[in-house]
Each structure stands twice: as structure tokens, then as C-alpha cells.
Amino acid sequence: MPQVKCPRCGTINDTRAAGYPFCVGCQDNLARCGYCRWFDNETVICTQPLVADVFEVSEEATPPCGYHTARESIQVRRWGVHALVWVGLAAAVFALGFGLLELFRAPPTAPPPPALELAVEADRGGAVVKGSYTAEVLIYNASDRVVEDIRLEIGKESLDTLYLSEVRPEPLLRGESGGWRVLAFPRLNPHERRRIALVLVPRKAGPQHLVVRLLSGENAYHGQCDLPIMVAADEAEGEEQSSRGE
Questions:
Q1: Residues whose CB falls within 8 Å of the CB of residue 62, separated by 6 or more in sequence, listed in order
Q2: Cα–Cα distances in angstroms (integers) from residue 231 to residues 78, 175, 211, 240, in the given order
Q3: Which of 12, 122, 212, 226 has the fewest CB atoms within 10 Å around its CB?
Q4: How does pLDDT run across 166-193, given as a tens digit for each residue?
Q5: In the predicted model, what is the mean pLDDT of residues 26-35?
Q6: Which pLDDT tens digit goes with each residue over 225-244?
Q7: Coil, helix or strand at residue 7
Q8: Verdict on whether the full-model pTM lies above 0.90
């Protein structure tokens, strides 16, 4: 699934690009339930057995799900690649007939990018202004390869209202890249799982969003989660404001 076509504006998007799943044409979130192969429009349910009933889904919802797969109707069929394959086969047969197979041998293809899965767990109703609130990020290496340069990136807009006070375990490096706060971690061995605790301090009451994404190596993109968090007002502050009103 290297490319998908945005249903809203028709722009072709590379699923391996750093900014995916946000459309480069209209910024529509292409990871919404309504664009997923597992979403049933008639019953408005998720048919993926591993995550069914775990998240609240709707056509516009974008839960932190690691199993989102673009529907076949918006996947871009790369017929040009298939045509080149047939031309290559014909050339190989021709070359074999003339004893020139070695001259026309196709170069080895690069291995596919490793499969990393991302999920975020938290008590969505347990956040209070100025109180400590922990969200756990789960990373799983589903491939048979060692994955180097693991980078967890947090949207800066999220950190405007959710102050990041602590990360456990401590990342190897911290930095910034565009609109993201970057946390670098050690490599992941095949089928290894890692939990990363993000200790946050909410700065304002109301609905907030923790947006994180996962990259590795040369900007290989492995998915993004948008965790909605309902932050309650600080009781002491509310009582103080009430007493001032009296």
C-alpha cells in the first residue's frame, strides 16, 4: 500500500512519507475510520477482530489504532510498475536466447521497510489541570529484522496544552523537527515490545489531543495516533474563583 488517493481532493499520497496520514493537498486525515477497509459503513462498526469494541468508531473518527488499512477503492494501482515487470521478463527471455542473460539481469530489489506497530494507552478521563497524567506508548517490532534509530515524535500543538514533564525510559536524544518534538530510543530487536511512559501535566481544562507518530531509520513512517484526553479543572482553583465571585 505505497500510495493512496485522497477521497476529498484527489491528491496522491505516499504512505511512507513523514507527513502521512495527513493529505499533502487538503490536510484531510486519511487514517479516519471511514477510509479503512475494516470499517462497515452500514453497521458503523469496526470488523477488525483484534480492536473491535476497543475504540469508539465512526466515519469521521481517528482512534489510535495500529491496524488501519486504506480501503482498496482509494489505493493507487501502480500499473506502470507491472508493465515494466512484463517488459523486463520479455527482455530476459530474449537475452537468454542469445546467451546474454547476465547482461540483462535485473538489479536486486531493496528489502521492504520493517513493520513497527504503534499504540497509546491512557485513562482518557483521569486528567486534571496541573496534575500528573501518564500516557503509555507501546511499540512492537513485528518484523524479523533489527530496527535501528527508533524515533517517537510528539506534535508541538499537543505540548502547548500538555506539558511533558518526564519520559520513562529516558530517551537517548531529544530534539525538534518541524512541528514535532523528537525522542530517540535504542534499536528494537525482532518481535521486541517496548513501553514508553509520557508523564504529562495538563495546562488547561477541556478536550485535548495527544498526537504521536513513529519513525525509524531514514524517515520510515510507521503510523500515527491521536489520543483524545478530557482534562478537568483544578478543584482548588475552581473553589478559589468561586469564593472571589461571592
A1: 29, 31, 32, 33, 226
A2: 45, 27, 15, 19
A3: 12
A4: 999 999 899 998 889 999 999 899 889 9
A5: 92
A6: 888 888 899 876 555 555 55
A7: coil
A8: no
Distance, in Å, from the CA atom of 238 to the CA atom of 202, rounded to the nearest integer, reads: 15
Other CB atoms closer than 10 Å to residue 55's CB: what's the count?
13
At the fourth CATH level, the homologous superfamily of domain 116-235 is Immunoglobulins (2.60.40.10)
Q: Are strands 220-232 and 127-128 parallel, antiparallel or unpaired?
A: parallel
Q: Is 67 helix (H, G, I), strand (E, B) or coil?
A: coil
Contacts of 231 (CB under 8 A, 6+ apart): 127, 128, 129, 161, 202, 204, 205, 206, 207, 208
Name all contacts of 26-33 with Cβ < 8 Å and 24+ positions apart.
Answer: 29/62, 29/226, 30/4, 30/6, 30/70, 30/74, 31/62, 31/68, 31/223, 31/224, 32/59, 32/60, 32/61, 32/62, 33/57, 33/58, 33/59, 33/60, 33/61, 33/62, 33/63
In this structure, what C-alpha cell is assigned to residue 134?
A: 501518564
CA distance linking residue 164 with residue 176, whole number of Å? 14
Which DSSP state fits 186?
Answer: -
Residue 166 CA to residue 174 CA, distance in Å, equals: 12
Please give the DSSP secondary-structure letter assigned to residue 131.
S
Domains in the chain: boundaries: 116-235
